[in-house]
Each structure stands twice: as structure tokens, then as C-alpha cells.
Design brief:
disordered N terminus
Length: 405
């Protein structure tokens, strides 16, 4: 592979016309819908499951490396294809649903702000922030709760830049990132990554990744280092850029036919990812943790491999998406059968949290993600017959128990 510095062009160039320091703000009420949630207990594990949605429409959680919970945990964000859907929220206190749409159109590519009750999202080429105020009703069946949005247009991405990822916020709350032209799509100057100053609305071109090879999206800031951002490379998957320099570098060098997939920042400049050395369709896939600073990799959640296993059998004992909580205690992982497990961040011991949220061979993957407090995970579930958003609560006695199950 060419030197990483050659992969970037026009580093940190200010793109003319992107500044929106005097962005217009406006305030409006959001539509609040009745609750439709359902609660049950997983019969095999005892974990409480709350299906936030039960509508026949397709409802699914945000991608696993985005923030789904507002900063105060009052609302969980998700996406729905129902007629009054799009970007939506679930009010944790009442179960009511909120449609997060603006007078000028719906929202996509969303993530919750790290330290305030705001949502960052795309409205076509505009980057907007909705600061949310929630007034919970004491009688939601007769008098729905009220949710108000104060909108700020942060900036606009030029029409010739094809947005291809969700927004993602830096851990110090100063920057947003957005990918343009990945996955074979086009951008004005080839695939690349832009970063946005949240205070001024200034947009900078961080880097371009020439196509081929291009890149596969998954643009995300470190959860603990405001200067580090990662993306999915096409030669080596785990690529990191320092926003002060703009030069992508491979932080993990793959060997031929090695599976490396679905990376996600955790604590202490660590990336979790899934992978192994046996090729598809009977691949082994461990949950691994990479220390970006030292290059050290350890297996925190072991997968399995054995001769003559079928793809369906092997996928039951291996992991496809993994994400760690913000406290550093747990890493959650899912498989192709919709089973969700937890690995203890200190001991690596595994806990089965819930089973059977996907049928092997079809349907949306769970894409398991975390709340803000390390107590709940959110994922897409087929258990009730439709694609619904489900939250599993970790039993209290697990948090201090070092034994396995």
C-alpha cells in the first residue's frame, strides 16, 4: 500500500462558502404519538426486554457507533418507514413516540449530542441541530407530552458533494464529521471526509481517499480523544486520521483473507472490531480490542471454528458487530441469529443477554449499541414478527458479579 500521506489531498483546506456563523434559529413543536411499547422477560436469561415499537412498519435503531440516547437519557432515537416516521424518538418515561421532522423536511444521518439534549442530522444538504425540550405529561393517554425543537442550521454541504455517512460528534463536542462519496459513489473531488466546526459552522476538507481503493464509510470520532477519527479502509480496514494533520494511517495491518470488520471506538483510545483467519463462508470471528497507540490487539470475546461446520452453525458461535459501553465495563456483540451477548471488559467472561432476534439468512442485523450509563443496549429485533427497536436492560446483579453464566 502507498504511504498513508499520499492518500490525502488538500488537507485541512477551508471550503469557501461553508461558513454559517450567523445560522438562523427557529422553534417549533414536534408531533407526539401514543405509546406502542411492549415489555417482556427473556425466558433464557432473565433480562428485561422493552420493544419500543410494535407497529407493522420497519423500525430500527441508529447504527451501532452513533449515539442513540439523548444526554439525559430521556429519549432514544430510531428510524421508521411508517407514514409519519423518518427519524423518531421514544420517550423513556411515558413510551410516547416523537416524530423528529422539521417544517422544511425530514431528517437523516442523525446522532445525539454528547453533552446536551440535541440531535445533529442532515436535511438534504443542510447540517442542522435540534435542541429538544421535553415536557412530560402526567396523563399522556388524554394529554400527550410536549416536545419542542429549537433548530439551528449549522452549515450546508455543497450539492456536488454526495453525503454517504451519518454525522458523528467528537468527544469534546467541538466537531462533527461526515463522509462524502464513499462506497463507489462520487464526490466533486473523489471520496473524502469533511469536518464541521460546531460553533462557527466552518467546514473543512480533512482528507480525500482516492478511488480505487476508496473507502467503506464508518466514519467516527474517538470516544476519548478529540483529535482521532477512524474510517473503514478498502486495503486495510482500520484506518485512523488525526484531525490536526489529515493523513490517514493503517493502525492494523491485515494478512491475506483475514476478516476485519465493524470497528467501533471504545475507551482509552481502543477500537473494538470483529474478525478471524478462517475464510468465508465458515469464518471464525472473535471480538477483538485494538490499542491504537501501541498496536496491541487482544481477544475480548472468543468466536469458534471447527471442521465441517456449516455456515449456519458457525455463525451461531461467532460475532459480527460489537460495541463497548462508555464506562469501559462491557462490550456487547451480536451474531447472524440475533443473539446478544456481553463480554466483561476486565475478565472477558461472557454473559448471554438475550436470544433469537433474527432468523439466520434474512432480516436486518441487530447492530447492537449502548446507552449513556452502561445499563442498556439497543438493537433491531425480528422477535415479534416485524422489525422493531428493542432495548435490553442488564440485570443489576450482573454489574458487580464477576462470575460467568
Amino acid at each position: 500500500m502507498k504511504h498513508a500521506g499520499a492518500m490525502c489531498m488538500a488537507v485541512l483546506i477551508i471550503i469557501a462558502g461553508f461558513v454559517s456563523a450567523n445560522a438562523q434559529e427557529t422553534t417549533y413543536p414536534l408531533k407526539v404519538l401514543p405509546p406502542e411499547h411492549k415489555t417482556m422477560v427473556d425466558p433464557q436469561t432473565g433480562a428485561e426486554l422493552t420493544f419500543l415499537t410494535t407497529d407493522p412498519a420497519e423500525d430500527h435503531n441508529l447504527y451501532f457507533h452513533e449515539r442513540s440516547w439523548l444526554a439525559d437519557s430521556s429519549m432514544v432515537l430510531f428510524v421508521s418507514n411508517r407514514s409519519d416516521g423518518g427519524l423518531m424518538g421514544y420517550l423513556a418515561e411515558t413510551g410516547e413516540l416523537v416524530q423528529l421532522a422539521t417544517p422544511k423536511g425530514g431528517l437523516e444521518g442523525a446522532t445525539a449530542a454528547r453533552n446536551r439534549n440535541s440531535v445533529f442530522a442532515m436535511r438534504r444538504q443542510e447540517v442542522v441541530e435540534l435542541a429538544l425540550t421535553v415536557d412530560i405529561s402526567s396523563d399522556p393517554a388524554n394529554d400527550p407530552s410536549k416536545v419542542t425543537a429549537e433548530e439551528r442550521v449549522i452549515c450546508a454541504i455543497p450539492e456536488n458533494e454526495l453525503v454517504s455517512t451519518s454525522l458523528n460528534e467528537s468527544c469534546d463536542g467541538t466537531l462533527l464529521s461526515i463522509g462524502v462519496g464513499s462506497s463507489g459513489q462520487t464526490a466533486s473531488q473523489g471520496p473524502g471526509i469533511l469536518i464541521i466546526d460546531l460553533r462557527t459552522g466552518e467546514v473543512r476538507e480533512l482528507c480525500r481517499i482516492p478511488s480505487p481503493p476508496g473507502y467503506g464509510g464508518h466514519v467516527q470520532f474517538s470516544r476519548t480523544n478529540p483529535n482521532l477519527l477512524s474510517f473503514a479502509g478498502r486495503v486495510n480496514r482500520l484506518m485512523v486520521v488525526d484531525v490536526r494533520e489529515g493523513r490517514p494511517r493503517a493502525v492494523y495491518k491485515e494478512v491475506k483473507d483475514e476478516l476485519v470488520t465493524h470497528e467501533c471506538w471504545w475507551v482509552n483510545d481502543q477500537l473494538t472490531f470483529c474478525g478471524g483467519l478462517h475464510p468465508k463462508p465458515t469464518e471464525d470471528s472473535h471480538v477483538k480490542v485494538l490499542n491504537v497507540a501501541t498496536g496491541e490487539v487482544r481477544i475480548i470475546g472468543a468466536g469458534s471454528w471447527w471442521p465441517n461446520a456449516t455456515p449456519e452453525q458457525i455463525s451461531k458461535r461467532n460475532w459480527w458487530h460489537a460495541a463497548g459501553d462508555e464506562q469501559g465495563r462491557w462490550v456487547a456483540a451480536d451474531n447472524w441469529h440475533g443473539d446478544i451477548v456481553l463480554f466483561d471488559g476486565n475478565t472477558t467472561r461472557m454473559r448471554h443477554l438475550t436470544f433469537g432476534h433474527r432468523t439466520y439468512g434474512g432480516g436486518i442485523h441487530p447492530h447492537v449499541g449502548w446507552d449513556r450509563r452502561g445499563k442498556q443496549v439497543v438493537f433491531a429485533s425480528h422477535m415479534l414478527g416485524n422489525v422493531d427497536v428493542c432495548v435490553a436492560t442488564i440485570p443489576d446483579d450482573w454489574q458487580n458479579d464477576l462470575g460467568d453464566d
